């Protein structure tokens, strides 16, 4: 008998405490809520999802993608912790218990393992009498939180000797507090090296500042003006630009088996810091960066497992001049986990033998846009992978009314997939 799966889509929880430093925190957080929709493709297609708010146009997605087994619930309150809000909603908790069925067992998969997850799991056990499996949650919360920081990655990589060679961390340093930053930045600029300043617990590219040698006179003022630097640690490291690429990998670290690579992606950026999408394809295995990145990533995965880590994690990297630089480790599911699972579920477990799959986020669309508008604009581009060899699937529809749309793309190869992205951009353009 298959254990029922419960996914708790708490992506915004980890951003919340850091985002409160922003002037426009509510707007910032509201733009992130649609990430919850990615959980449609996490784990099995038949599951219960707890989300901040009901997933937009879910009935259409169920019918179009033939995923009738998805159940979606949202708690009545919103405090910044989805687990706490769920526990405070008796009707929701009753539905969770019913979902566990006669076996009274649940497989619990979060976006991020947080302290409140353990309170939620313990309540399911002690109050409701359920057996809870946590296959993607590190039992050491402190280890997970440490590895999810910029300094955590740099220290881990340094311990493994990944400070030189074809896969390494960029040249840089830690600063224990804000007052140390100007000297660290000036020190790098004095060598002619551009640098990037990163808050230790930063998420979603918030608080990043880039300095070049010509900016030397503006350093103190720009650092002082930022609301994202307080008394936390900060990383200052070389800013890598020029002829660069942006590969990423995700690993699974089981409790009782060797870690393994889940997939690789090519990240699609708009400008230096705005991630807009990810693509995965068999062609990526032939890229020059594939071997050094996956070998370096495997070393990190094995060491993380030795220290007690369990679950998924992703590494974002920058490739330049034959070297792969590790610049971020996300100790959780990532913004591309669902891309891989979309392909595996809707095309097949060996989808990379025949397809390239990706996602892309479109911003700045007219506010008030609805799904019928999108379907009209995209026309025959919209097709289900269950019945077509290439096409577009509108997803993450919760924030569509605010002018943001995400789409999944699939095609026989990367070139055709990128053509589809260009085609959707043109179809959504106000000048068409």
Automatic annotation (TrEMBL):
SUPFAM superfamilies: Glutathione synthetase ATP-binding domain-like
InterPro entries tied to this protein: ATP-grasp, ATP-grasp_PylC-type
Ranges where the ATP-grasp domain occurs: 154-360
Record bears the keyword Transmembrane: no
Alphabetical list of PROSITE patterns matching this protein: ATP_GRASP
Transmembrane segments: none
Protein name (Swiss-Prot/TrEMBL): ATP-grasp domain-containing protein
Species this chain originates from: Streptomyces lunalinharesii
Highest classification ranks of the organism: Bacteria, Bacillati, Actinomycetota, Actinomycetes, Kitasatosporales
């Amino acid at each position: 008998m298959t254990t029922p799966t419960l996914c708790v889509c708490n992506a915004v929880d980890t951003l919340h405490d850091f985002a409160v430093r922003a002037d426009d925190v509510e707007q910032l957080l509201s733009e992130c809520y649609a990430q919850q929709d990615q959980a449609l493709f996490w784990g099995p297609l038949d599951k219960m999802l707890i989300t901040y708010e009901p997933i937009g146009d879910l009935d259409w997605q169920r019918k179009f993608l033939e995923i009738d087994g998805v159940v979606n619930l949202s708690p009545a309150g919103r405090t910044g912790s989805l687990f706490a809000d769920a526990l405070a909603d008796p009707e929701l908790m009753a539905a969770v218990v019913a979902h566990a069925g006669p076996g009274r067992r649940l497989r619990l998969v979060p976006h991020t393992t947080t302290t409140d997850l353990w309170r939620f799991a313990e309540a399911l056990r002690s109050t409701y009498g359920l057996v809870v499996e946590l296959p993607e949650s590190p039992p050491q919360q402190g280890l997970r939180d440490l590895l999810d920081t910029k300094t955590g990655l740099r220290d881990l990589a340094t311990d493994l000797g990944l400070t030189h060679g074809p896969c390494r961390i960029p040249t840089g340093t830690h600063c224990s507090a804000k007052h140390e930053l100007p000297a660290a930045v000036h020190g790098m600029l004095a060598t002619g090296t551009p640098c990037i300043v990163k808050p230790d617990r930063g998420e979603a590219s918030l608080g990043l500042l880039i300095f070049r040698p010509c900016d030397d006179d503006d350093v103190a003022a720009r650092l002082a003006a930022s609301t994202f630097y307080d008394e936390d640690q900060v990383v200052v490291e070389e800013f890598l630009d020029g002829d660069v690429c942006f590969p990423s990998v995700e690993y699974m670290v089981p409790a009782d088996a060797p870690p393994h690579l889940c997939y690789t992606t090519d990240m699609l950026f708009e400008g230096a810091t705005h991630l807009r999408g990810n693509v995965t394809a068999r062609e990526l295995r032939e890229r020059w960066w594939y071997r050094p990145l996956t070998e370096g990533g495997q070393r990190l995965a094995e060491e993380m497992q030795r220290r007690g880590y369990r679950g998924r994690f992703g590494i974002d990297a920058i490739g330049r001049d034959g070297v792969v630089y590790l610049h971020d480790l996300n100790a959780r599911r990532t913004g591309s986990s669902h891309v891989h699972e979309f392909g595996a579920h809707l095309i097949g477990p060996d989808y990379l033998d025949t397809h390239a799959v990706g996602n892309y986020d479109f911003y700045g669309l007219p506010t008030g846009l609805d799904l019928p508008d999108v379907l009209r604009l995209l026309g025959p581009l919209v097709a289900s992978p269950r019945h077509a060899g290439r096409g577009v699937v509108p997803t993450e529809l919760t924030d569509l009314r605010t002018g943001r749309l995400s789409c999944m793309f699939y095609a026989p190869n990367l070139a055709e997939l990128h053509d589809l992205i260009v085609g959707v951009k043109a179809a959504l353009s106000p000048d068409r």
